[in-house]
Design brief:
There is one protein chain. With 359 residues, the chain is mainly alpha-helical. It has one domain (11-347). It is 69% helix and 0% strand. The protein has helices at residues 11-29, 37-67, 72-97, 100-107, 115-125, 129-137, 155-177, 179-194, 207-222, 235-239, 252-264, 271-274, 276-283, 285-306, 311-347. α4 crosses α14 (285-306) and α7 (155-177) crosses α9.
Amino acid sequence: MSEQRQAFKGIEGARAWLAWTVVAAHVVVASPLVYFPLFSSLIVVAEWSVKVFIIISGFVITHLLTRTRESYSLFISRRALRIYPAYLIALALGVAAAPLFMEMVAAFPMQPPHEIHQGVARARSVSDPTLQLLLHLTLLQGMFPATQHGFLPPGWSLSLEWQFYLLAPLFVAAARMRPAATSAAVGLLWLAFMLGAFGRFANPSLLVGAGWYFLAGIFSRLHLERLPKFSNYPLAGLLVLAPLSLLGGALVPVIVWVALIAYIRSDCEWTLLDGRVARYFGARSYSVYVLHSPIILLSGWCAWRLFDLPTRPAIVVTAIGTAAGVALAAELVYRWVERPAILFGRRLSTEPVPSAQGW
């Protein structure tokens, strides 16, 4: 399997779809489309997509930890090399694009009340800019409600990811040795988070708020070989799970994950998930995800302010400019920053590193 292929089929292609779903949703919330139910429903789908990403991360990091023997310092160094280089570029772009925020709000016929706009305002409201910068540079901004979005709205999930990396060896070891106790602890901490014991967060950017999604990925990898192996994709059986989504949106990412695990355990291979295009965009999905927010702001500013376009043409220009800009930026960052950093991280280890790479 080549370096650009994942150790598990379907995961890379799924990441591509998930990342671009988030991009599409944020284009909607950065325009008056957010007030139309047909389009605004995409916001919820994007929230589910991010949670599937979290489950995938738990799965992949567990695979890395159980297949390699390395010190904690080596593990965390390779994780930092995986997410920091592209993140720092995106953060710099986010800070540079922040002045466009007020102009964008002034240009809108209506002001979308969403995190992509509120995040900059919250970042500016923090009294100590040094603290704001320090939290973002250490990827700990997600631990505090006022800074979880900041100048880079998707950064909350990267902060969550970094928190998981810091504790992943302990988390995975506890899940292996004490699964029941670990599940109970994660559930109690999640309940406390939902009740506001750690503050009021717009997104679950604190590890205790998303711990059970990581745990779903961890348990999936630990017990993967014990799960049924299918000669064909068990579509009929999985459709039985669909009504469970009516019990709450929190179950949707888990249902999607079960469907992806069934695909991994089947003998079929779909172009949708493992074709050349899916693999290409999957390999660049992290760059797509981390870079898209400031590019949306820039595209919107050009459409609404620079060209002063009417509403509908402005929306079209914003969407096209975002898609083209994100695709180009992701390719450049992946080729010249992200991939070299990943390969350098692999060279730090004396043992072969599994090809699956988490965020």
